[in-house]
Amino acid sequence: MVKKVYGIGVGVGDKELLTLKAMNVLEKVNTVFVPISKEGKKSIALEIVKDYINGKKIIELLFPMTKDKEILKKYWNEATEKIMNEDGEVAVLTLGDPTLYSTFSYVWNLLKDNGVEVEIINGISSPFAAAGRLNIPLVEGDEKLCILPQGKDLERYLDEFDTIVVMKTTNLEEKLKELNDKKDKYLIGIVKKATFEDEKIAFGKIDEIDFDEFRDYLSIAIIKKVK
Amino acid sequence: MVKKVYGIGVGVGDKELLTLKAMNVLEKVNTVFVPISKEGKKSIALEIVKDYINGKKIIELLFPMTKDKEILKKYWNEATEKIMNEDGEVAVLTLGDPTLYSTFSYVWNLLKDNGVEVEIINGISSPFAAAGRLNIPLVEGDEKLCILPQGKDLERYLDEFDTIVVMKTTNLEEKLKELNDKKDKYLIGIVKKATFEDEKIAFGKIDEIDFDEFRDYLSIAIIKKVK
């Protein structure tokens, strides 16, 4: 039975964003669990760490892209069982940081429910990488920040928060177009696949952004009020 | 004159949370600027990277702990001038991540205004380190997160956000006590100096926390609604 599980955030696309701690933990574990979204599809998280896990046992965990909670629960349970059946100390990889919208969090909760020791190794998460690539601070001084998945309740917070991060920007254009004559009050920075080789960046007023280029699962928008 | 400035997030207390990228950049620059809050006081950021900057020129940047914007501006301008007068490529260290409430952000803006090239090297920031140490996810699925410095407008967002991060918890107890009979609706995780050797952690309902132990500049609270 498993002794300890390290939940490792491997950061975003740039392999160098891995922490020394992640590298050192990967060196000492025997088994590395890697998330995939489809059978036969490459794990992005595995690509990032592959230089540091020579000779390790690699086990894939399937987390399909669906919003159906019942289906997902089945896969989370399966993944948890696989991890618990492994011996010794193991690592489970996740893109970004394990504490922020990671698929690992569901397995993490199940492992804790089963009394398994979990240690989190933080990683660089995409909103920070996106702000870095846009060359703008997210927040300064006493500014307020919120993070809204899929821009949930965006209209309610646009005037209250100095900075809004939207994770997954698929419907963002439609939400922002509804602002009509208030549109010029905001600046949008938008980044697809921050720090990956095929990264794409835009920054400007709402009407200046070609949102079609950013309809991607790994896109992040940063919305700021014009000062 | 300076050619390029790397704004490097060195993470929080645990030295191993440094990224490989930060380490590699520190290796190639000639000069490393380190923030201090008082003349003669040790730089925490310098402590974290000191094993990687043997033989480098170290220059201190003084950012005193005051809220007086006019005084601060004087020091930001002085720091920017010092950086611009250095030759070649230089690094400026900051605790946590440069994009999230970093002192570096003011200097960063001034450098950009002066046409200096800046590249951001992200670091692990304290809310993530705190969640990791508390062994709880910050947000999952479609949950909403906000970050409020000093708990600004906390009462307005307590019921709207799944998770609220409070940076600097000095007045948090007073704000939370006002909730009276609603107090048991929330769980608080609170971490002083996450991942430092003298880290302190508590988790529970509001009445169970000894807030006096967490009146510290580097304390973070994570507030969640009881599900």
UniProtKB/TrEMBL annotation, chains A, B:
InterPro entries in the cross-refs: 4pyrrol_Mease, 4pyrrol_Methylase_sf, 4pyrrole_Mease_sub1, 4pyrrole_Mease_sub2, CobI/CbiL, CobI/CbiL/CobIJ_dom, Uropor_MeTrfase_CS
Domain named Tetrapyrrole methylase: residues: 4-209
UniProt entry tagged with the keyword Cell division: no
Entry EC number(s): 2.1.1.151
Protein name according to UniProt: Precorrin-2 C20-methyltransferase
Family to which the UniProt record says this protein belongs: Belongs to the precorrin methyltransferase family.
Pathway assigned in UniProt: Cofactor biosynthesis; adenosylcobalamin biosynthesis
GO molecular function list: cobalt-factor II C20-methyltransferase activity; precorrin-2 C20-methyltransferase activity
Keywords assigned by UniProt, alphabetized: Cobalamin biosynthesis, Methyltransferase, S-adenosyl-L-methionine, Transferase
Root EC class: transferase
GO biological process: cobalamin biosynthetic process; methylation
Pfam families the record matches: TP_methylase (PF00590)
Organism: Methanotorris igneus (strain DSM 5666 / JCM 11834 / Kol 5)
